[in-house]
Specification:
By secondary structure, the protein is an alpha/beta fold. The chain has one domain: 2-Layer Sandwich (Transcription Regulator spoIIAA), CATH 3.30.750. It is built from three helices and five strands. Strands 1-2-3-4-5 form a five-stranded mixed sheet. The longest helix is centred in the middle third of the chain and has 17 residues. The protein starts with a strand and ends in a 5-residue tail after the last strand. 38% of the residues are buried.
């Protein structure tokens, strides 16, 4: 289960994600990120409070990043938790996504 909250910060629309981005929550995560991308030109996914991300969660983030490219919007992942950062490194996500160590992006 995940929880998302949204707020404007330093010119970015920040979608903060908390909980577990697993197969059960991946669609919810992708929907939240895509809706933010449709409404805002610069979107950051704050993953500091994300405890776990599965391959389904990775797919949701990649799909959101692709939607941002199609719309010519900026999309970044910020402050990934240690466990999420480990998954990103193992899967090579740093080559696909813009990842920043902290907010604001």
């Amino acid at each position: 289960m995940i929880e998302t909250t949204e707020a404007a910060k330093s010119g970015w629309w920040v979608v903060s994600v908390k909980g577990r981005a697993d197969a059960e929550a991946a669609d919810q995560l992708e929907s939240a990120l895509r809706a933010a991308i449709e409404a805002h030109p610069k979107v950051a996914a704050d993953m500091a409070a994300l405890d776990y991300i599965s391959s389904a969660g990775l797919r949701a983030v990649i799909q959101a990043a692709r939607a941002a490219q199609t719309k010519s919007s900026e999309f970044a992942v910020c402050s990934p938790s240690a466990s999420v950062q480990k998954v990103f490194k193992m899967s090579g996500m740093q080559h696909i996504l813009t990842i920043h160590g902290e907010l604001p992006c």
